[in-house]
TrEMBL record:
This is Putative succinyl-CoA:3-ketoacid coenzyme A transferase subunit B. SMART domains: CoA_trans. It holds the Pfam family CoA_trans. The keyword RNA-binding does not apply. It comes from Marinomonas spartinae. Keywords: Transferase.
Amino acid sequence: MALTREQMAQRVAQELKDGFYVNLGIGIPTLVANYIPQDMAVMLQSENGLLGMGEFPTGETIDADMINAGKQTVTAVKGASIFSSAESFAMIRGGHVDLTVLGAFEVDVQGSIASWMIPNKLVKGMGGAMDLVAGADNIIVTMTHASKNGESKLLDTCSLPLTGKGCIKKVLTDLAWLEIEDGAFILKERAPGVTVEEIQSKTQGKLIVPDNVPEMQFAQAS
């Protein structure tokens, strides 16, 4: 069974480490903020100028002036800092972010990503994605494995205009966790109940399947 958006965010949160500075892109990546372990110190950075984002606000904590790059209202943790977008991009371009989590339309076996334009469709634009993929070594892409009509988004070569070339090494889809090495997707984990055969049928790019592909593990709700 395909992962929900919340489960995808939970799986990404498992990649966080204490002391990380993390930039979360628009969409599924923003949900990762809700799954940071209580005993872990992680500072979330937003390209519009906030370092230290907290969980999404409740009715009592909402502040309409406190937003992330996707214009969603957010909270700030103790010790947070607010600054200009120019300073924010200096952090990003300077390689000071430990992990970046982005959405995408397509990723290919060379690690290229297309995330900002679909011909004949209204899209807001690239935003800070070009800077993020250029300035970060550790990037996780979150996306659905295939389009609504079943076309694979994991390709030999991206068909859409590129955001970055050869910069992606890790991809989490609603079906699988994959890493990109030597011109191929390597299947590392599969979503609970999803078969290797389903993943193979929905992956257009070269896919390497190890002998044992474990199911993803999620902490049980208390």
